[in-house]
Specification:
The complex is a heterodimer of chains A (133) and B (118). Chain A is mostly helical and 133 residues long. In chain A, 73% of the residues lie in helices and 0% in strands. In chain A, helix 3 packs antiparallel against helix 4 (66-91). The longest helix of chain A is centred in the first third of the chain and has 26 residues, at 10-35. In chain B, helix 1 (2-20) packs antiparallel against helix 2 and helix 2 packs parallel to helix 4 (91-115). Classes of the chains: A mainly alpha (133), B mainly alpha (118). The A-B interface holds A 7-9, 11-12, 15-16, 18-19, 22-23, 26-27, 29-30, 33-34, 110 and B 19, 60, 62-63, 66-67, 70, 73-74, 77-78, 81, 85, 88-91, 93-94, 97-98, 101, 104-105.
């Protein structure tokens, strides 16, 4: 059944997660090294987002069933993150004057951060249904 | 860098469309990834030489190099993935997505080098 979870278009999803994880890690690294004092909240969040994307990438890629729950948690966290931070960045811009991956619903990343959690949830669901009980 | 980003964007789009059409990973896709990496290596060399010649970036150097080093990892990683996953139908799309990501990153690097004021 691990074959199933790995097969097909899910691999593309994992690849997109990997790229986003790289992008978020790179960005938060630069932000924290250079300007952490300017916006500790936004930049800490960048780092947290980066870690969650890394975890999601690994969890989605892993054939072990235990990782499925980790993947689910990470993907849900992203969904909440992009919704909350996206909304806050619009209604309370002074809190998030400095960009994070999730600001304005991930506009700086072509809204990919807003779409990915849904694809991730769909994929987790679809791949589970194909696994015989 | 702007032209480089545009060319990589076009190549990435073509490869991604090939991937969606379920074209298998082959020499053409491998060549596209190799070309992408080649432009990035040339860019790396140029980015080292240019500041010595007195034409440094207008923007943030650390941010620039973080982008460049990350971009350099993507094409080999995508190809490695495709080679490991021989039976995979979606390897071509993975490489296409990788090249598109490189295109976006090169565009950002262009902004940092030429537009952004530190």
């Amino acid at each position: 059944m691990s074959e199933r979870k790995h097969a097909g278009i899910g691999r593309v999803l994992i690849a997109v997660y990997a790229v986003l994880a790289l992008a978020a890690t790179g960005r938060s690294f630069v932000q924290i090294v250079q300007r952490f004092d300017e916006a500790p909240l936004a930049y800490s969040l960048s780092a947290v987002a980066a870690v969650v994307y890394l975890v999601a990438t690994v969890a989605l890629a892993s054939p072990k069933d235990a990782w499925r729950r980790v993947a689910l948690a990470a993907v849900c966290f992203e969904l909440v993150g992009v919704a909350v931070v996206g909304t806050l960045s619009l209604v309370a811009p002074e809190l998030f004057a400095h960009d994070t991956v999730w600001s304005r619903y991930g506009m700086g990343y072509l809204f990919i951060p807003a779409v990915l959690p849904f694809l991730g949830l769909w994929w987790l669901r679809a791949s589970r249904e194909r696994v015989p009980a | 860098m702007l032209a480089q980003a545009a060319v990589l964007g076009a190549i990435g789009a073509v490869v991604a469309i090939m991937g969606l059409a379920r074209r298998p990973f082959g020499d053409l896709v491998f060549g596209a990834a190799a070309f992408t990496l080649l432009t990035l290596v040339v860019q790396t060399v140029a980015s080292i030489i240019a500041p010595i010649a007195g034409a440094g970036p207008s923007g943030d150097l650390l941010e620039y190099w973080t982008y460049l080093l990350t971009a350099l990892v993507i094409p080999p990683a995508a190809v490695l993935w495709a080679l490991v996953d021989k039976k995979g139908e979606w390897s071509t799309l993975v490489v296409g997505v990788g090249i598109l990501a490189c295109a976006v990153m090169v565009y950002r690097m262009h902004q940092i080098w030429f537009v952004q004021v530190a």
